[in-house]
Every structure is written in C-alpha cells, then in structure tokens.
C-alpha cells in the first residue's frame, strides 16, 4: 500500500516540508537529498496530492502537445515512438500529458489556448517547417518549450533537440559514391518538413563533391509509409536509366522499397544498394530484413525522453541542460550496400 507524505518523511528522517520541497524542485534542497527522496518515492509507490501541490506551487505538472488531425493525414508510427520516450521520462517524474488535437490551420490558436488554460507548464513542438512561424508564437507565450527539430531561416535563438540530418545523408551518400554508385535515388519525407530538406541537402552535397548532380527524377517526397516506399521504388525501377542505389528516410519506406526491388527480381547489395534512416522502431529492426539494411541510426524514443527530461527539469528548476542539442546519427554498414554493378 502506498505511503502518505508523513510516512515518507518519517522513513527518510526528514521533515514533511523538506520532502515536499524536494519533490517540487525547490533549489534550496540539495541534489543528494532530492535523489534520496526520489529513490524512496520509487521504492514506496508514494504519489503526491497533485491538487495540493498545484495550490502550493502554481504548477500543473503536465506537458502539453498539439497533434495535427485532419482527413488525409495518416497516423505516424514515428510520432508514436517519440511519444513513448516522452512518456517514459514523464512517468519517472509523475508528470502528465495534455494532448490537444487540432486542425493544421488552427495549430497556433490551439497552442495559445493550451498555454492560457493553466493545465500545462510547458509544451513541445514537432514537425518543423522552413521559416516556421510557430517558434515566434511560442516565444511570445512566455512558457517553457523545446522544439524537436529545427526550422530553416528565421530566428535561431530557441531551445531545440535535433539530429544532424544533413550530415547523416551526406555520410550515407558518400559511402555509396565510394562504392562506385552515381545514380542514387532518394525516397524522402514530406517536402516541406525540415528534416526532409536537410537530408536531400546532404545527398546533394556529397554528389557535388564527386562532380555529380542530383537527378530530380530520382527524388520522391511523401508520408513515410511502406506503400509510398513501394510506389516510389517501382517508379524509379521503371525509368530508362534506373538508380543503382537508393536512400530512404525511414525503415518504413525501405520496407516498401525492398518489396518493389524483390518483385523486380533484383538482388539487394548486388544489383542495387539500399540505405535507410533507422529511428530504432522496435517492430522494424534493420538487421531483421531479408538482407540486413545499412542505416543511419538515431533513436526517436531517446529523443522523446530527452525532451521530456529537459522540459521537466525547466519546470522543476532542476538539472542543467544545454539549450540546443544536435545529435549525430551513427552510420551502420550491413549487407544491403555493395559495389555498383560492373565495379
């Protein structure tokens, strides 16, 4: 049976006030005491009275997020994996989510209503676009926020966590070029999202270093599902001069691309090379493909957990975190990449 505040304080040999202040992130409680209290909370199953805490601190102990919902917007397993990481960190600190669905055109107004409601202490922003106007809007709300991704253009003085998408696809394309590939296709995310823009830029930069140009007929942008990966790869293979290699912005897209390659009777790693970005989706491991996939790897779940930890740390005034983090993706070479045919 969970203990109450009085019992928790007696167990630790501390006053109820000290325990309460440790749980609420007051700076006068030292880090060692705070860790003792948090460990005891985990061991005893103690749950604070949130209504009383809110009255005492003015905090809601909740993180807000807005999810675009509209006909034609497909559910996104990538976002679900990110939320899983966010949730893992929130559970550790007994924080809640407030999830607001919104039509895409009403997203800014939804954020404003969420901030004014008093039901959240901080928000996070995803699906970044070039010159994204939502950043200036969030800065005007005077509420802590962290961006997952980065805008292109506009102000750059905002808190974010992103992976170096340009470098990831530059490294992937460079590997293919070193293997002799010159006709490299790209199955990318939606064209207006900044991670897609940067991944295409990385491919173009590598090609330019080899004195080559990207053939726009070998670039497809879409939502990241296996069906779109399949259709894109089919289209590339039907061209008079098909690619000898393809970069996919997700293992989900790669799943469809591999299906099209297999149906065409081609051998992955010999007739055509495949590299995908691996968000570390638990149900789709690149090493379990029929031909294990070479990938650029960065965990979405880890990103979600990190953003939640940063938001909660800001709310509780605990921890010292960088304002801006740019993670480098890891290039993992497996059997799906080989020399260009004829090499």
From TrEMBL:
Residues 3-57 form the HTH lacI-type domain. Pfam families: LacI, Peripla_BP_3. Keywords: DNA-binding, Transcription, Transcription regulation. SMART domains: HTH_LACI (SM00354). The keyword Transcription regulation applies. The keyword DNA-binding applies. InterPro entries: HTH_LacI, LacI/GalR-like_sensor, Lambda_DNA-bd_dom_sf, Peripla_BP_I. PANTHER family: HTH-TYPE TRANSCRIPTIONAL REGULATOR GALS, LACI-RELATED TRANSCRIPTIONAL REPRESSOR. This is Substrate-binding domain-containing protein. It comes from Sinorhizobium numidicum.
């Amino acid at each position: 049976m969970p203990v109450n505040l009085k019992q928790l304080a007696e167990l630790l040999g501390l006053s109820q006030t000290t325990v309460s202040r440790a749980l609420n992130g007051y700076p006068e409680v030292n880090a060692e005491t705070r860790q003792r209290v948090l460990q005891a909370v985990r061991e005893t199953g103690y749950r604070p009275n949130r209504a009383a805490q809110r009255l005492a601190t003015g905090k809601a102990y909740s993180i807000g997020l807005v999810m675009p919902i509209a006909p034609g917007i497909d559910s996104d397993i990538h976002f679900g994996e990110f939320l899983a990481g966010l949730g893992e960190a929130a559970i550790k600190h007994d924080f809640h989510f407030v999830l607001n669905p919104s039509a895409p055109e009403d997203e800014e107004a939804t954020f404003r209503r969420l901030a004014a409601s008093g039901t959240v202490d901080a928000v996070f922003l995803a699906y970044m676009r070039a010159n994204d106007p939502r950043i200036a809007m969030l800065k005007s709300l005077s509420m802590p926020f962290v961006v997952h991704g980065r805008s292109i253009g506009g102000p750059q003085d905002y808190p974010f966590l992103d992976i170096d998408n340009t470098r990831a696809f530059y490294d992937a394309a460079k590997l293919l070029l070193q293997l002799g590939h010159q006709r490299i296709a790209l199955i990318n995310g939606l064209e207006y999202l900044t991670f897609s823009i940067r991944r295409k830029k990385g491919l173009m930069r590598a090609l330019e270093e080899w004195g080559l140009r990207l053939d726009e007929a070998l670039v497809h942008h879409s939502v990241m599902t296996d069906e779109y990966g399949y259709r894109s790869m089919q289209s590339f293979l039907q061209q008079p001069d098909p690619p000898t290699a393809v970069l996919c912005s997700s293992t989900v897209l790669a799943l469809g691309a591999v299906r099209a390659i297999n149906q065409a009777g081609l051998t992955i790693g010999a007739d055509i090379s495949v590299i995908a970005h691996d968000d570390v989706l638990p149900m789709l491991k690149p090493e379990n493909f029929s031909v294990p996939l070479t990938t650029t790897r960065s965990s979405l779940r880890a990103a979600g957990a990190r953003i939640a930890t940063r938001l909660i740390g800001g709310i509780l005034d605990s921890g010292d975190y960088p304002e801006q983090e740019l993670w480098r993706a890891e290039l993992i070479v497996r059997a799906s990449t080989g020399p260009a045919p004829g090499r």
